[in-house]
């Protein structure tokens, strides 16, 4: 519950003034004087309620610039103008990233940034792992490419297949005045971020697909 100026004015007039024959009506001079600190107390009360919102990078607004400064953002991977939601998503990805080398780790990064992706890895042909004429195996966190003619040359290669653009729609309570009704972004930032985070001995290819 956020307390109003009237609440604090009533508190100052009736609980903090000495007892006596003093006019404490709303139109009195003392009420007019105390209305100034009462307004400031109400302002501080309202701002205090925002601390929880500002302490979370996913909901921060007034402290977003300070959050980004502490996280080293924007960096070389941030290209073009970003909406408020996109800035928050990028910040959240940066401050919560703990490192990893699994397909699920990199797929989660892409998902946090708003991209629909599939990770593909190459595997040599092995008996019992495929059916005749079938060269791909789909798994929960990616696709394995088996038995291609040049598989051995791609031992340390992997693909990030991006399905369409990132579309960030305008959303009341999340977006801010001046944001586009729908901001459409290519995955240039994603490719840059993953290139910095991928294992050094691997080679990443980003494949862009148009949405059907």
Question: How would you characterize this protein structure?
Answer:
36% of the residues lie in helices and 18% in strands. With 212 residues, the chain is of the alpha/beta class. The chain has a five-stranded mixed beta sheet, covered by helices on one side. A two-stranded antiparallel ribbon has the order 5-6. It is rod-shaped, with a radius of gyration of 28 Å.
Order of helices and strands: HHHHHHEEEEEEHE
Task: Give the overall shape, derived from the CA principal axes.
Answer: rod-shaped
Sheet with the most strands, sense and barrel status: 5 strands, mixed
Residue fraction in strands: 15-25%
Count of alpha and pi helical runs: 7
Rg over CA atoms: 28 Å
Give a brief outline of the structure.
The chain has 212 residues and is α/β, with parallel strands linked by helices. Helices cover 36% and strands 18% of the residues. The strands form 2 sheets. The chain has a 5-stranded mixed beta sheet with strand order 2-3-1-4-7, covered by helices on one side.
């Amino acid at each position: 519950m956020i307390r109003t100026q009237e609440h604090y004015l009533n508190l100052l007039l009736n609980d903090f003034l000495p007892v006596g024959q003093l006019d404490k009506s709303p139109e009195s001079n003392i009420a007019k004087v105390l209305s100034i600190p009462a307004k400031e107390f109400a302002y501080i009360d309202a701002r205090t309620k925002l601390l929880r919102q500002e302490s979370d990078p996913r909901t921060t607004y007034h402290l977003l610039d300070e959050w980004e400064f502490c996280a080293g953002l924007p960096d070389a991977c941030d290209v073009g103008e970003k909406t408020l939601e996109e800035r928050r998503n990028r910040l959240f990805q940066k401050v919560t990233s703990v490192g990893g080398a699994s397909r699920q780790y990199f797929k989660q990064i892409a998902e946090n940034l708003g991209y629909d992706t599939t990770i593909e890895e190459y595997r040599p042909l092995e008996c019992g792992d495929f059916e005749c004429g079938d060269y791909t195996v789909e798994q929960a966190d990616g696709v394995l490419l088996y038995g291609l003619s040049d598989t051995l040359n791609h031992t340390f290669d992997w693909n990030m297949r991006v399905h369409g653009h990132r579309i960030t729609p305008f959303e009341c309570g999340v977006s801010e005045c001046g944001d586009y009704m729908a901001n459409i972004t290519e995955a240039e930032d994603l490719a840059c971020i993953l290139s910095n985070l991928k294992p050094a001995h691997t080679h990443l290819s980003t494949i862009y697909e148009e949405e059907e």
